[in-house]
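Kinetochore-associated protein NNF1 (Jaapia argillacea MUCL 33604), 231 aa
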Amino acid sequence: MASSSQLFNATAPTAAELATPTPKKRVEPPSKRWLHFHSALQLAIQRVAHKWTYEDFAECFSAVVEGDKDADLTQLHTTISRYMESMISTSCEQLLEKYNARENIDTLHSVVTEARAHKAAGGSDGEGNLGPDVWRENLHPKAAVRARTVPVLEEEVKRLKESLAELENNNRELQLVMQENVRKREEADQKATQLLDTLVEVHAKWDELPLEQIQEWALIMAETMSTSRPP
């Protein structure tokens, strides 16, 4: 059975483990809401870590207590309580740092402080003027959302209408160009048709000519011209 001193040395935390985590340096001082929250959290951790008494410790570690009855295990009980406090505190600080708890609580405190000041001023800017973006108790959330989104949507609709008008104008210009091209193509097709009709007509008339008589006439003319030449 290990002695109380050996057990103390085995379970005693190091100085680094007992050291309270050093918070990061911040430019802005913490808000009162964060200070109250952090103080309450540390107090709750201390109460939880030191809530169990020496009798509870002896009941949990009965074998150790009975094996070393002459030793005073009070220091071991205190050391374990301090270690539990340090471990829980370190874990909580890591969670608070991970989720930016201080920044969020400071922001909440700023919003609440501003809202209280605004309410104390009668819902005005301090000079009795109500701003267009001021929240009121009788203002429905949907109305507040519409007040912000409707102007944005109206600007978007205006932009889309201008884009649509520009596209329609471009389409009309393209339509005119296309119609002009169609007209020119139809004129070209009409001229080509007329030329083909004329060619067909000429070919038909050529077929109607008496080719045998033309050949005889051409032969006679050739003989006449040959006989009329001087020797």
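DSSP finds nine helices and no strands in the chain. The two ends are 163 Å apart (CA to CA). ok done for today
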